[in-house]
Amino acid sequence: MDSLMTGRIFLSALTLMAATLTAKAEYVRIASINLATDQLLLQLVDRDRIVALSFMAADPELSMLADKAAGIPGLRGDAEEILRLRPDLLLAGDHGNRQALAFAERQGIPVLRLPVPNTFDEVREVIILLGSKLSAEEEARRLIQEMNDRLETLEQKTNLQPERSTALALGHGGHAQGSASMMHAILEAAGFRNTGAEMGIVFERRLTLEQVLTDPPRFLVSTRYHADHPTLGDRFLSHRALRQVAGKMDQLEIPLAWITASNNLTVQAAESLYEQARRHLP
Predict the structure, then answer these.
(1) How many other C-beta atoms lie within 10 A of the C-beta of residue 5?
(2) Helix pair 182-189, 137-158: axis angle to 10 deg
(3) Which of 40, 106, 153, 214 counts the highest number of beta carbons within 10 A?
(4) Residue ranges per domain, the chain?
(5) Which long-range contacts (CB under 8 A, 24 or more apart) does 136-144 make?
(6) Contact by Cβ (8 Å): 116, 94
(7) CA–CA distance, 131 with 140 (Å, rounded to integer)
(8) What's 165's DSSP letter?
(9) If DSSP codes are grouped into helix, strand and coil, which group holds residue 25?
(10) Does pTM top 0.70 for this prediction?
């Protein structure tokens, strides 16, 4: 599936949701069982309108807004706990928890499923849709403007670079991030050429050490979950086969929490990667 097709599917999903969820209402008991919608909800509405978030929302290793989520009940997406809360709107992703969400809808609980953005344009579209649904249009515009300002500042910096360095982002299990992925958007915003995309990878694909060594990128990007937990990038760079290219490839790291959910906060990952790379380049 190419990037254009992926974008069309995303737009179709948003169009369908906009058509089926047009009623305006002041929701006062909102719940979320998805980390991305958790974080948007925390930024768009007052805390007293939120009755529950996903259990990941208060985990600082996974959530950039763990401090704001502290003290709000956490959900694991079970039908029983959703029914017990009876929110007047339930936010979810478009994957997972299918049975629980179908059960909630049968019980008369409105459910809004939001697709996962893979570009910053798609992030804007999701924020606009959710802001409209929550009667929080002004807050939505503010989030988008702040993200746009940060992306514009970053673009001005990257445009001063004589050339774009190559970077390969490796996720869990050695999966490289290609085009049609949020990491691709992050790498491009940070001023890199995405080696995964140049290898023809769409979204993600598992790579072997040998494939990385065939044409090593200038930077290897990995994520850190716990400070004392070695990353995949650590293991790749410590491999004896990489000694011959050790001086040509540097490792960049970002906390897993910065990319676990694709939303306006994701721009921080691009800013950090740009600043880290500057320290390695002449």
Answers:
(1) 11
(2) 50
(3) 40
(4) 6-147, 161-278
(5) 136/44, 136/45, 139/43, 139/44, 139/45, 140/44, 143/40, 143/43, 143/44, 143/264, 144/264
(6) yes
(7) 5
(8) E
(9) coil
(10) yes
Q: How many C-alpha atoms does 195 have within 13 Å on its Cβ side?
A: 21
Q: How far is CA 149 from CA 23, 153, 249, 267, in A?
A: 32, 6, 31, 10
How does pLDDT run across 109-146, given as a tens digit for each residue?
Answer: 999 999 999 999 999 999 999 999 999 999 999 999 99
From CA 37, how far away is CA 20, in angstroms rounded?
19
Identity of the highest mean pLDDT range in 165-179, 191-205, 209-223: 191-205
CATH of 161-278, one of 1.50.40.10, 3.20.170.40, 3.40.50.1980, 3.40.630.10: 3.40.50.1980
Tokens at 157, concatenated = 């910096």
- Domains 6-147 and 161-278 are alike in CATH topology: yes
Distance CA 78, CA 218 (A): 45
Which residue's structure tokens are 């959530």?
A: 63
pLDDT for 248-280, tens place per residue?
Answer: 788 899 999 999 999 999 999 999 999 999 999
